[in-house]
Specification:
The structure is a homohexamer of 125-residue chains. With 125 residues, the first copy, chain A, is an all-alpha fold. Chain A has 7 helices and no strands. The longest helix of chain A is centred in the last third of the chain and has 18 residues. Chain A is globular and about 45 Å long. Chain A starts with a helix and ends with a helix. The relative contact order of chain A is 0.11. Chains A and B meet through helix 4 and helix 6 of A and helix 4 and helix 6 of B.
């Protein structure tokens, strides 16, 4: 598979996670940091996120747990949105946040909870 | 619910995850650090891990992702063992490790991979 | 002790630290993340922070050191405020920040210093 | 060498990195956190950053890598500015960010990329 | 104050913390990493740890909390030993570990507990 | 470029860094974690480490700084060995370690120093 094909596959992964839309942060990065945009698209999304061994719901819940545990809440928010798009419920995301108190402590979990609150509010009609 | 009941529920969670056995590290901690043993049993396992909102497979995969992302491989190994006991396949655990390269980088994923290799070898008959 | 009693004890710990007031962030969390609010109140504050083995001043200074060292400055600010309420001086909090350069480096200490500056300014009449 | 001489040497290091100007954040810290300002000036800049064993370009690129990898982007931005002042090109800073995906994962690298974008834009005439 | 005087002051701080003995790890570092040994002695111990604004017990308990929260258990062990030398009780150190579950999660606290167990055992006659 | 070509390029990068030898840890990973071995080879080494925008000495010194700052000393040791192979001096590596005290604190720098001591000793005839 060529890098171009991998990037194309990554673009398809994004649109399948993001209700058919491209990811605006990735698009903005393309001009000034082209290799990082390509690596995100071809490696992170095209290679890793397209792998068939985990269903989308499970991968997104595990990714939300990892992003919350390391304190990367902006990325957690994007992936929690993808999780909701894939049919994960708000309550399941809350359970991930509750679980994160154990490996990573209360500040990481409370910050993740606030970020999910924002996400839930933004998606309400 | 009293603390005693919560600790009892935590003990049941451990045995259900650990093929009916208690967790030896927790038992060792009980004498010298009684509050930490109680908090692990009553809060971490009794309160958090007994919640019904996530099935055991999903919670264990998300916990493995979180422990691997923050570099807590000894805890990742214990929870990966619980995941295998709950019917998660070795291949699904490998997919979690592959995913961890994206949020947390290659050293965390490679260290997690080596730890899973040890776990898999220890469980082979 | 029941969970309700532990949460009540946690509420008393907060009010004793916070000049008789509830903690507004905790109250906001109660509706959308009820288990996390309960865990913070019953476990973190009710179980851990009510323990008699450390006086309030020492526990708050150690907690400020821990929150500063891991970069959780919003939580550091709350606990530094509790420390001031308990009679810790601004100068003692500054000493904690100076000490944090050694275990955690200059960025964590400088960020903590800025956060303490904000806190001190907010509390000036 | 006395502490006063070390601090003076640190002040010279800053001005040589910062186009002849003092560092405003350091000046602000001087009144309220005098020991931290002195430690930054005398130890971090005066002792460490004045050492002759690395040329300025290499030290700044390595420092940018370290600050980016630990997620301290405000400090990364300051040191990336010093790097540009020392003749490092924007493209070399981008290469550091690309490299950071490997040790520290994509969120740290993407956040560093956005911070560099801000820095580059602020310096455009 | 000259660097030599600061290093001498640091050596006195170590001996006052360490029952009159030098710190063997620091001595080993002196030949191959002379600047790091000097910085540890003159800055970390001579400048920071000699400051009069915190009593030894409080500084050591706060330092143990910080080292435990960031997972630097070898350094936590050294400073917990200094704490015991300064009259801190084993029970007070245990309280610090219990507190660390809140900011930094259970793995960091449990690992710190095991390290304290080793330290306590090594010091038993 | 196909993934096979990228992996081949990564293999060449390793051999050019490692005195013509393959990297034994990578080879061991190939059987049980084939995607992680491929990602390390094709992405980390083939895509990132083969980029021409930084010379090998600068990239290795920046990578050593990043690995040391995040506490990944096993990976730091491998990349410090590659740095020595590329003509970086022991003294330049020591300067990186001294610098790391500023962004990441003394424990990370002291641990990195011990790891470099091991590496230097292993390479002495």
């Amino acid at each position: 598979m060529t890098t171009e094909e991998r990037a194309k596959r990554g673009g398809e992964v994004i649109r399948s996670l993001n209700n058919g839309q491209p990811q605006p942060n990735l698009e903005r990065m393309r001009e000034e940091f082209p290799f990082l945009a390509e690596a995100t698209e071809a490696y992170a999304l095209g290679d890793v996120w397209s792998r068939p061994g985990l269903d989308t719901r499970t991968r997104q819940l595990a990714a939300v747990a990892a992003f919350a545990a390391i304190g990367e809440t902006a990325f957690m928010k994007i992936h929690a949105g993808y999780a909701l798009n894939a049919g994960v419920s708000e309550d399941e995301l809350k359970e991930i946040v509750y679980m994160v108190t154990v490996p990573a402590g209360f500040p990481r979990a409370i910050t993740a909870a606030r970020t999910l609150s924002e996400l839930f509010a933004e998606r309400r009609p």
